[in-house]
Amino acid sequence: MQIEQLSAAELVKRIGTGELTAAQCTDHFLGKIRDKNDDNGAFLAQCDEQAADAAKQIDASIAAGKSPGPLAGLPVAVKDGICTAGITTTAGSKMLSEFVPPYDATIVSRLKDAGAIVIGKTNMDEFAMGSSNENSAFHPAKNPWNHDHVPGGSSGGSATAVAAAMAPVAIGSDTGGSIRQPASFCGITGLKPTYGRVSRYGLIAFASSLDQIGPMTRSAEDCALVMQTLAGHDKNDSTSAPVDVADYMAALEKPLSGLKVGICKQHFEEGLGEEVRASVNDAIDVLKTLGASTVEIELPYTQYGIAAYYVIAPCEASSNLSRFDGVRYTNRAAAENLEEMYSKTRAEFFGEEVKKRIMLGTHALSSGYYDAYYLKASKVRRMIKNDYDKAFESVDLILGPTVPTTAFKFNQHAADPLAMYLADIYTVAANLSGVPAISIPCGFDSAGLPVGLQLQARRFDEATLLQAAHQYQTQTDWHQRSPQS
Amino acid sequence: MSNLAQNVAKLARIDLPDDKAEAVQEDLEKVLKYVQQLEALELPEDIEPFFGAIESVNAIRTDEAQPSYPREEILSNAPDSDGQFYKVPSVFEQS
């Protein structure tokens, strides 16, 4: 069996026993990146030297009989919006084209401490604003199942990297669907943890009350393995929660009998593609044969999720991105005075979508508009959270499609940005309410593009998400299929 | 809302040339029109806004001095510095 076909768990096991060295494994995936990146653009940077050095150290410590860590030798691709010490971190923006962080994000330190090896930085929509990767300031990543189609976004490079077997595991971030939507489009497993479950220290902030970091892998089992390292309180992130971390790997094997799965009728109304609907319905049947029962539920206010999101996220972004003003971060436009330096720098180095969202947020927060926009959207957000709280009184999981369609073509939504925003219609509510959610592959459409199934759970109940996803994957092989490219 | 784009661009410190303002304005109006559906939405009167996905109390840690990152490393990312401080164009014009 080829190295890239092995699961993350199997790679770690083989490296631990010496059957495979960390150096061989790292070399293999670095070679894949070199072979494929010109075609699919998944990576913005490849970390050959750092990765080779780290692999050598892992191999030496294993040879010396030391405990190698739960992810020893596992190559990981990290989204380029997450800081890596000494490795250029651009967030997909020209604004940060030369930015070299002086420190590692907490999740990068945790991965390294567990023995994982960062092999590269993945492509993304600029500052995580986008659902197609077309907003990357450098070049878009392409969907490995069909290069005419987008990989989704904003963590599109991470999804492409895993689907094209350039990395066994990637890290993404999710503000309105940015892990789950590309996972759905590329046929992989992607988990957005509960808000507060994973530290965001070192994540270049987009919308701080919504952003979460999470794993993107081929299977739920690999997702659980990586999540065990990512999860936990961090004193450097005051929003990270001091809540105990469950044993995710142990949870996988529990049977689903007695599990109550909520089916939200709003997720199956107008706008849902028929082939997506059929695949999701088949998945419901599989979960039923595993012992789960279904309950019809309502989340009436989630229909306002996109509208609330496009007030709240731009407001927070307009504040977070004010730090990019030509003073501290690498790029500055020529100017006569300070005021001109700010406005020319921001005009020159931000892309159009980023500028648009900053302006939307600035407008919504400007004098006289606060009540109508931000306050009202935050009240709607409360209603959405209340919907979830009520639903989770009677169910353990909520099931539905991740995205209404399969991956769309490049430029398909160029004329109508709102149509692209609606790609996140089923995913934003988890960010607004803070609950964890996972997307797993559940079929293919007639064009051969993957369909994603979304499961959502109570706050801090990632274990049940992973359990249900894993049990589903013991009965199906969608997650084991690989694209030709 | 005719000068919306130009006013907001000025507030956001984003230079917006006149010939681009109209297109930006149209783009902004499309999204604003969509989100304005919230204005008409009637909610229970006593509903409190929800600003953060966890409603935690202040997370306060012990106030202990710790080494910071070396000044040199931080300033190495600056577009312009004198080795001690960030350098920027004149803040005040000379009279």
Protein described:
In chain A, a hairpin with a 5-residue loop joins β10 and β11 (450-457). By secondary structure, chain A is of the alpha/beta class. Chain A has a domain at 3-253 and 436-480: Alpha-Beta Complex (Amidase signature (AS) enzymes). Chain A is built from 16 helices and eleven strands. The mean pLDDT of chain A is 97. An eleven-stranded mixed β-sheet of chain A has the order 1-3-2-4-6-5-10-11-9-7-8, with helices on both faces. In chain A, α2 (22-40) runs antiparallel to α3 (48-63) and α5 (156-163) packs parallel to α6. The two termini of chain A are 18 Å apart. The longest helix of chain A has 24 residues, at 371-394. The longest helix of chain B has 18 residues, at 18-35. Chain B contains four helices and no strands. Chain B is flat, with a radius of gyration of 23 Å. Helices cover 37% and strands 0% of the residues of chain B. The relative contact order of chain B is 0.07. Chain B is mainly alpha-helical and 95 residues long. Chain B has a domain at 4-40. At the A-B interface, α10, α11, α12, α13 and α14 of A face α1, α2 and α3 of B.
Features:
heterodimer; A: 485 residues; alpha/beta; Amidase signature (AS) enzymes; B: 95 residues; 37% helix
Give a short synopsis of this structure:
The complex is a heterodimer of chains A (485) and B (95). Chain A is α/β, with parallel strands linked by helices and 485 residues long. In chain A, 39% of the residues lie in helices and 13% in strands.
Strand order of the largest sheet of chain A: 1-3-2-4-6-5-10-11-9-7-8
Assembly state here? heterodimer
Number of helices of chain A: 16
- CATH homologous superfamily placement of the domain at 3-253 and 436-480 in chain A: Amidase signature (AS) domain
- Categorize the overall geometry of chain A: globular
The string of secondary-structure elements of chain B, in order, is: HHHH
Distance separating the two termini of chain B: 37 Å
Which secondary structure elements does this structure contain, and how are they paired or packed?
The complex is a heterodimer of chains A (485) and B (95).
Chain A: H1 8-17, H2 22-40, E1 43-46, H3 48-63, E2 75-79, H4 106-113, E3 117-122, H5 156-163, E4 169-174, H6 180-186, E5 189-192, E6 212-217, H7 220-230, H8 248-251, E7 260-264, H9 274-289, E8 293-297, H10 305-320, H11 338-349, H12 352-365, H13 371-394, E9 397-401, H14 417-421, H15 428-433, E10 437-444, E11 450-457, H16 462-475
Parallel strand pairs in A: 2-3, 2-4, 7-8, 7-9
Antiparallel strand pairs in A: 1-3, 4-6, 5-6, 5-10, 9-11, 10-11
Helix pairs in contact in A: 2-3, 5-6, 7-16, 10-12, 10-13
Chain B: H1 4-11, H2 18-35, H3 37-40, H4 71-75
